[in-house]
Amino acid sequence: MKNLKFINSENNSKALFIANFIYYKEGDSVNDEKLKRGPNALWSKHNIKNILSINVTEKEAITGANTLEKPDEILIQTIPNVKAFNAYINDSDYKDWINIQEETIRKMTFVVGTKIDYREMASDAPFDERVYALGMLYYKPEGKNKLKEFTDKAVPLFMKHSFYADKFLDILDKGAFIGDADDFVLPDELRVFWSDSSQDLENYNNDPDYHAIKDIREEGVADYPTFLGRYGVNYTT
Predict the structure, then answer these.
(1) Domain range summary for the chain, segments of one domain joined by +
(2) Which of 70, 85, 121, 125 sits most deeply, having the most CB atoms within 10 A of its CB?
(3) For residues 111 and 21, what is the distance between their CA atoms, to the nearest angstrom?
(4) How far, in Å, CA of 232 to CA of 30, rounded?
(5) Other CB atoms within 10 A of residue 67 CB
């Protein structure tokens, strides 16, 4: 696996977020103990923090098409900077752990990026009742402005239907811990959000006010493949 090397050197000192897309071999599952335990000492050594695990149940496209294979799990982590990431993947203990994971995982791809500032949001809904979504944005030329226009108009709808932002990331690179990442194009952004329940999500999607403004988003976004799921494994780091 190659080291990360960003075109813009300003990104070298920034904290990185890694979205791992995990595909298990037939007969194995997201709850397999080998991955659930995780290499805690190794992750701690390189200051890797586990932010969120999503047990993926379905895929869709908010806009355009979703031709990507549905992963079984998405694991989001953070690491201090690109130097720490490269030290992690060159650690002999990391290579030993990957060899173990290959017993149960057939593919583990990732995208890596830096956090986009946004208004922090919180909810009192139990984690196991929430519906999480991870979407990868592929913009049309000047599309960011159109998405911002949509988002500004949609804020009252988000509040009405208990729809929350979790992580927004500028994507800088992609790769694979196991297998390869040749089957997808690097997205421009990645967004994670959730609704308090499946009913809240359905109500949002069926709201006439949402349908009245969604074309604004589609003017700016070519494809918005999305994966939906529930709060997943509670990794301990």
Answers:
(1) 13-117+127-231
(2) 85
(3) 9
(4) 8
(5) 11
How many whole angstroms separate alpha carbon 71 and alpha carbon 60? 12
Q: Which CATH class is domain 13-117+127-231?
A: alpha beta
Q: Return d(Cα 23, Cα 188) in angstroms, integer.
A: 23
DSSP letter, residue 62: S
120-141 pLDDT, tens digit per residue, is 677 888 888 899 999 999 999 9
d(CA 78, CA 167): 11
Cα–Cα distance for residue pair 192/163, rounded to 1 Å: 11
Kindly state the percentage of the chain with pLDDT values over 70.
92
Q: Which two tokens stand for residue 127?
A: 């984690």
| One-letter amino acid of 44 | S
Count of C-beta atoms within a 10 Å radius of residue 156:
10
